[in-house]
Amino acid sequence: MAGANVVRTPELRVSLGDPRFVLLAIGAVVLALFPYFGHAWGQTYLVSLVAKMLIFAIAAVSLDLILGYGGMVSFGHAAYIGLGAYAVAVFSKYGVDNGYLQLVAAILGSSLIALFIGAISLRTSGVYFIMITLAFTQMLYYLGISLEPFGGDDGMNTKRSDFSLRALGLDFTLNDNLFVCEKRVDKACKVDDRDGAAIYYAAYIALIASVWFTRRLVASRFGMVIRGAMSNPIRMQAIGFPIYRYRLTAFVLAGAICGVAGFLFANHQQFLSPVYMNWLRSGEIMIMGILGGIGTIYGAVIGAIGLLTVEELLEGYVGKDYWQMVLGPLLVVLVLFANRGVYSLIPHEMRKVPMFVVKFALVIAGMYGFIWLMSKSSPILKIAGNIPHLPLYVIFGSMLVALALRFRQDRRAGHG
Amino acid sequence: MGQLIFETILNGVQFGVFLFLISAGLTLVFGIMNMVNLAHGSLFMMGAYIGSYVFQQTDSFALAVVVAIPFSLVLGIALEFLALRTLYARDHLDQVLATFGFILFFNQLVLRVFGATSQEFRLPDLINFPMPLFGFTYPSYRLIVIVVGLAVGLALYLVIAKTRMGMLIRAGASNRAMVGALGVNIRMLFTLIFGIGAALAGLAGVMIGPIESVESGMGENKLILAFVVIVIGGIGSIRGAFIASILVGLVEVIGRVFMKDILRTFLPEEFAQTAGPALASMSIYILMAAVLFFRPQGLFPARTG
Amino acid sequence: MAEIILGIERLTKRFGGLTATNDLSLNVEKGEVHAIIGPNGAGKTTLIAQLSGLLAPDSGRILFKGQDITALPAHTRSALGLARSFQVTSIFLNFTAEDNVALAVQAHAGHSFRFVKPARAQAALREPARQALASVGLEHRAAVVAADLSHGEQRQLEIAMAIATNPTLLLLDEPMAGMGPEESTRMVEVLKKFKGTHTLLLIEHDMDAVFKLADRITVLVYGTAIATGTPDAIRANPEVKRAYLGDEA
After folding, report:
1. Is B121 a member of any domain?
2. What's the average model confidence in pLDDT over B62-86?
3. Could you read off the pLDDT of C163-186 as tens digits, one per residue?
4. Which residues make beta-bridge pairs with C14?
């Protein structure tokens, strides 16, 4: 199995000849312009939604740093989203709306907690590491629930951060809009001024910065140590690297970046809840990274945006009752057929692009057709003589078929 | 006061054996097949749901238990055979992702089929009465749960320590590759182990159903406790899972009931009031961290290869 | 009097009832190629593990350049100039050959808390790496991912990684492991180039290679050193013959 798990996808080339670069560049431009068009077309809900995707992308990127490059499977990463959010809420509760202070507190708080958790957890490895990071997250979660002054289990509302610099005459909070009509002035304007573009651009800039920083980081000497330690920790020690301190540093950096995501999330939601730190949330962020492709950074961004988009679409089409049920099998199928993530499926040579576009369109069409079928299942139910829960069986059945096919495929390849 | 202490300790033991039923399967699957199975909590939930369904149809608790066990066994075997065995060769991350998908699926399944309200599941008065014990009283049903749990523990111990299959299980937990190389039908052994674990989880579900609420998502908090148990006990070790479950059960229950009072003895009242519940819920994680600090492989690690 | 680079004094290691290293004492002189041979189960790999710091001995001392390193962890010993290669190839499979060696160079180039400049573009790391690759004859495979190298090439990479750090002592654990006759000959040529300029402690089964390379040989049987001497002396030693060939010899 020696060479089996070695990733051989070539690195991204900053040139128009690399489809991945083109795709990412187009994506970056589209995202930059999105609020303008979103507000112009009255789709402010969408702008808010995409802002949320960008925020989770930051969290996923920070996790990819330690998970994809460092091999540290931290199931407690959601804790830092919570800590960043608490920084905003706690300060806000005591009347301090100053965004600069809150941001510094979020970064410092996350870093210190990450230092503490990492110092203890990194002495273990494998599943024990997973469990201990999980345990710490749960501890923080329960701590949050019991903190009555901050809403305990129910959470509490919080105001958006104020980044004004009055001394310089700059009046700016994350509540501001940049494109939208002022509700007070134009009565025809139906927009809720909470869905401002300011929070969107804050998230966008933070995401670009995180991606740039982590990409530099993983290519640097520090990054090489982390990657080597994931590949062969014994050899790293043998050639002279005390890997513990490097891993701890990476862990703290990841925590700090995720704390920024938490700061933004509290601002976005204008609400704080300990549930942000739940282990299932950690699982979700991990899934975003795995879906997009771990060990690539860009994959984390694609995964976060992709997963949240799919969740949103499913909920819209299939209804609140079904969407998780469809998502479940979807994840299973994705694990089996694209387990290096979406990013690795994107071709790295221009000539392979047409084929990729065709396959991608087919998959999307298939998914849409399937989901449409599910949403229209009632006439089918009537025809099928009132078989209750028919869509259920179809979904479960198709998942099993996919798994069985893959099992046979693996068997033939000699893995079974 | 004596009654409270007596009841609390027994409740701790009861919670412990309940956790053992769930953790036994989990530790074997993880220890022998090296698979992280997040869907184990769903097997527990399905046992509870089937039990409550049978109860609602027949008004018989006994029948509910009798049906739930083979149902969980079959469900577990079907799941393993049709779906999960492809994941043995995958790394832990893939297993996490795929079995997480199953959690979502099962949670929504029960919501869809049974609705969102908590399922009705009651105990017959015959087995649910305050029973006099050592000068105190204790609910008879909880005593039954303890007895059943201990019996299962004993039975598992006998099977693992005294039978040939048990020997294969111990060998597999210690060094999986060797057992396969020895020509044992590994696939069947795995399926069997998985099925037994599922049956135990289902048993736990149907037994706990009447005294807790049967609802979607009930598996997840138990799952995380089960993981804590097997990590403390040592992955792959039934003995470790048993001792760790009792330990965790006691710490959890005693903590919940007495933490405030314990803190009161040396902290001012307001601190005890707020810190009490927080510390109580954190207690098992603190326990796990402490155990891992001194014995990073758990209390009774089975793995050598 | 030759300078002693490595001094092993009364080293002992037991695993339950098994004594893997039995009161072992031996010296490695500067500039020599010292080979350790012995039948299977003699405890050779356990010895290397204790020398490189991955295994703690039960008693005894290890002196490196006069300094007691018995309690030092592996990475510190490496920083002091003790490099080892592994019997079972232990390289970074997902990195190219050059990346692998550059990492070894980087380990001895100060701390690595440098976060911004890309490592692959730094000549201070790449140049020594290329030189080390050239010294083992792998320079034409520098850009190949390590997992794609042949077994023999991977063994050569092992040596390159050890050499790249300019070590005072090279511990080589069965460098010929798993090699066919052609590859072995090539490896012997590679190692011959280091004779005199480097000090080598070599654990090996391949007798041909050992007799071609070694200045002195120590024979290890059940954890005990039964003889130490020049190749000719060892060849003639009756105890050695008995250890290898049984009592019929």
Report:
1. yes
2. 87
3. 888 899 999 988 888 888 888 888
4. C19
Cβ of residue A69 closer than 8 Å to a chain C Cβ: no
* Domain harbouring B11, CATH code: 1.10.3470
C118-127: list long-range contacts, CB under 8 Å, 24+ apart. C118/A216, C118/A219, C118/A220, C119/A219, C119/A220, C119/A221, C119/A223, C119/A224, C120/A219, C122/A221, C125/A221, C126/C98, C126/C102
Task: Give which of A48, A156, A172 is closest to A100, Cα–Cα.
Answer: A172
Q: Indicate whether A280 pLDDT > 50.
A: yes
Q: Round to whole Å and give the CA distance between B107 and B67.
A: 21
Interface test with A, best of B108, B222, B270 (most A CBs within 10 A): B108
Q: Which candidate from C107, C114, C161 shows the least CB-CB separation from A220? A: C114
Class level of CATH domain A19-313: mainly alpha
Number of domains in chain C: 2
Annotate C212-243 with DSSP letters as a single string.
Answer: HH-SEEEEEETTEEEEEE-HHHHHH-HHHHHH
Q: Using CB atoms and an 8 Å cut-off, which of residues 200-229 of chain A contact chain C?
A: 216-217, 219-225, 227-228
Name the pLDDT band for A165 (thresholds 50, 70, 90).
low
pLDDT digits (tens, 9 = 90+) for B148-169: 999 998 998 888 888 887 887 7
- Which residues lie closer than 8 Å to B137 by C-beta, 6 or more apart? B3, B130, B131
DSSP state of C109: S
The nearest alpha carbon in chain A to C80 belongs to A240
Give, rounded to a whole angstrom, the gap between the first and last alpha carbons of chain C. Answer: 36
CB contact under 8 A, A238 and C86: yes
Q: Touch between chain A and chain B (3+ CB pairs, < 8 Å)?
A: yes
Adjacent-strand bridge partners of C203: C36, C173
Q: Give a yes or no: residue B131 inside a domain.
A: yes
**Average pLDDT value for chain A:** 79
Q: Bigger pLDDT: C222 or A265?
A: A265
pLDDT at site A229: 93
Span A248-277, average pLDDT: 92
Its domain, for residue B54, covers 2-294
Is the reported ipTM for this assembly greater than 0.90?
no
> pLDDT tens for residues B288-297?
888 887 887 7
Separation in Å, CA of C245 to nearest CA in chain A: 36
Task: Tell whether B76 is covered by a domain.
Answer: yes
Which residue, A292, A239, A295, A360, is CA-closest to A66? A295
Q: Say if A7 is an interface residue toward chain C (CB within 8 Å).
A: yes
